[in-house]
Amino acid sequence: MSMPFGTTIPARLAAAAAAVLVLLSGAPSAAQSRDLARFERAKEEFRQGMIHFNNMRYLASVEFFRRALSIHPDYYTAREYLARSYRLAGFTEEALGEWETLAEESPDNAPVRAKIDAIRFREGGLFAPGRSGEFVLADEYASAGMKRFRFPNPVDVAVDAGRNAYITSFSSGKLVKIDPNRQGIDSFSPSLESRLYGIDHFGGRIAVTDFGRDCVYLMNESLKILKTFGSAGSGEGLFHGPQGVCFDPAGRLYVVDSGNHRVQKFDGDGKFILSFGRQGKYEGELDKPSDCAADRERVYVADTGNNRVAVFDDSGNFLENLSVEGSERPRGVTLHGSSLVLADEKRGLIFYDIANKNAAAFSSWDGGKRSFRRSYAGLFDRDGFLYCLDYLQESLFIFSPLERRYSNYDLEIASIDTRKFPVVALYLNVRDRSGRPLYGLTRDNFSVVEDGARPSGIYVDYLRDRAPSAAMVLCVDRSRAMGAYHNDIPWVAEFILKKMRKNDSLKVAGFNDDYRTENDFDWSRRRALRALKERSYGEGRDIGKALYNAISDVAPKVNRRGVILVTDGREADGSFARYSEKVVIDYAKSHHVPVFIISLGAKDPSLSRIAAATGGSIYATREMDGLRSIYDRIRNGEEYRYVVVYSTFKSPALKGWWSDVRIEVDYRGQKGTEWGGYFVP
């Protein structure tokens, strides 16, 4: 019986076992020789498949892995990688079919079962979402244990895209920055008179109020001051004990001027726009407000003295007062979807559904053994972790929803790069059970084992931290109907081309019933425009094939990536003949490639769904602001791949040797594991 490699035991052990059997039994039988020869043929097909897999040519790798299985049907590793290739190529159901075959053959195979469960959960076909509104403690940052990064009497917290926490300390007048693994990174203390209070983060910038000096600091994520504005007083742009601060989605700034019982609005550079509110208890009046939160249209103010949340529009017009059930002294307010998260001094955290006007309190955990003593701030990060700052306990508590706490992370090895051997680079996707990417992990969160041994050191690069550059495919519909829009194509492309920088690259591709390159990845605007002015229009319109190929072209790029499709917006017969809408969406999401669609005519529902599902948008030519935003959204978008780099102990003399690699991520009480391998080059 042959032993597949790269599964439960390393390849060299399987080979050794086979050799011992041969020695014990004398010369191999004809049947044994045929079986060994068959396995070697399958192994060679598998080897070729791995070359394509690690170059992210997943459809090509599918063919080789299928050939390996046709030669040797019980080849475990070939079937596992066949499933992975299907999954990364966007063919989710086919991937599930292969993993289910493995699960049937080995019912106690926990890693395979975990993959099936994770996909079924995300697809909504197997599990209910679990109980909501219940939280368990995932992490705790206690001021007493932070040494020089202590934050006595903390009052507010913000979290950036890398999950670094920024905590303002009222007593020390200090702002401290702490990474996701509770390591102090930096601190900021303006002066002895400072009493830092409110803080918010937006687009790489931080706004902090100084209660003691009656001013506001704008700074970058390195805590370098970019601008200071405000001083003591009651006029425009002046403050008396400023407390809460928040950005709206457009980057405008609202400052709660508590001593003046009002809120002031500024642009992103600190230029005064307007103020609203005055002292009192009636409509539009405030009493010692402490915090605010803003969406595109509304501003929510924690009206502490009146025990309510006052709601204004973005022009400062009063709309309504919200009496939140259970609230006694609201201190902090943030938005989470369609709900408010209210930090109440006496009642802990209160979640208020704005539409339905109902509230739920969260005040204790660990079976009631622990509770908040004086909560000042609460917010959710984009991964669904809940942060709460307690003034008296001088701690930042981080909670995980109960339904997520007991599920593992989903790791996916997209490729293994051995071109600089003995340096090995693993490109990874890390997601939670719901399919949301996990961002901001560091080296401390990863461990690697190769053939049972741990490399002496690993390096982890979160690819979003690279100097941002953009790689884009501009995919132009060249079907007959598009001839009428020929002169519009270069015009709409100018919205992207005029913003490009020399480290960006753009590929121009055209399609009708086929997909072809018109100008390969290049930063030259001149060459791109020349390609766009081509007048080659033909029969057919295979949109699915065009998008799939465009994603394939841009996915391997180590840049911010995106696909821009220019079409008349009308679906025709055969538009998704080769690749379905779902396959295109799954493929794009597997590689974090947003699809933006510029429609010169109608907005077909299938195109709208693809754009929305992949994190892109669809725009008509008249939507100028949308067209102008496409480049910035791609260049400044999120990149969720990680690269884990280490030096192997293998020698190049072991060329052709299969190395079994296992990687684990551990973050806030949840883990995820994955295995893979490579042939020594």
Q: Keywords, please?
A:
4-stranded antiparallel beta sheet; 681 residues; globular; alpha+beta; 23% helix; Serine Threonine Protein Phosphatase 5, Tetratricopeptide repeat; disordered N terminus; Immunoglobulin-like; 13 helices; 6-stranded mixed beta sheet; Neuraminidase; 39 strands
What can you tell me about this protein's structure?
The protein is an alpha+beta fold and 681 residues long. The chain has a six-stranded mixed sheet, with helices on both faces. The chain folds into four domains: 11-123, Serine Threonine Protein Phosphatase 5, Tetratricopeptide repeat, CATH 1.25.40; 135-405, TolB, C-terminal domain (Neuraminidase), CATH 2.120.10; 414-465 and 640-679, Immunoglobulin-like (Sandwich), CATH 2.60.40; 470-635, Rossmann fold (3-Layer(aba) Sandwich), CATH 3.40.50. Helix content is 23%, strand content 34%. Helix 3 (58-71) packs antiparallel against helix 4 (76-88), helix 5 packs antiparallel against helix 6 and helix 10 runs parallel beside helix 11 (581-590). The protein contains 13 helices and 39 strands.
Helix content: 10-25%
- Mean model confidence by pLDDT: 87
CATH superfamily of the largest domain: TolB, C-terminal domain
Determine the structural class based on helices, strands and strand pairing: alpha+beta
> How many beta-strand elements?
39
What is the C-alpha radius of gyration, as a whole number of Å? 29 Å
Classify the oligomer. Answer: single chain
By CATH, the architecture of the largest domain is named: 6 Propeller
Stated plainly, the CATH topology of the largest domain is called Neuraminidase
Strand arrangement within the widest β-sheet reads: 33-32-31-34-35-36
Beta-strand residue percentage: 25-35%
Number of helices: 13
Overall domain count: 4
Shape: globular
Largest sheet: 6 strands, mixed
End-to-end distance, in Å? 28 Å
Assign the CATH class of the largest domain: Mainly Beta
Low-confidence segments: 1-25, 125-132
